[in-house]
Amino acid sequence: MLADDEGECRFWVDDGGATFLPVWLEQEFAEMVKSEGESVWEFELEEFLQDSVPWLAEEGYGISVFPVAARPDSVVMPAVEFAARINTILAESYGEAFDLPYL
After folding, report:
1. pLDDT tens digits for 4-45?
2. Mind giving me the DSSP string for the chain?
3. What is the pLDDT of residues 36-75, one digit of tens each?
4. 68 close to 74: Cβ distance less than 8 angstroms
5. How far is CA 80 from the centre of its chain?
């Protein structure tokens, strides 16, 4: 994810006023879209799903998956839906998923 010089996460707001947190699969992709004064932060998926998603959901913020400047219509979804999709992929692909009480 992106953060400013003070360590605050960068949220994006769409034309309709919806706020979302942009996330990328790899640091290199985030590096391609960061602006001056921003840095890229990596996070552990399990920690993000357990700690950040409930807060994002409570605030009404969504998640934008792999946004790129050339394609502003990236996949945006509620934070809990993001967590549910990730857990489904983990369960189907690896036979294990995270224990997330909010799902």
Report:
1. 988 899 998 988 999 999 999 889 989 988 989 999 999 999
2. -EEETTSPBP-EE-TTS-EEEEE-SSHHHHHHHPPTTEEE----HHHIIIIIHHHHHHHT-EEEES-BTTB---EEEEHHHHHHHHHHHHHHHHS-----TT-
3. 999 999 999 999 999 999 999 999 999 999 876 666 667 8
4. yes
5. 11
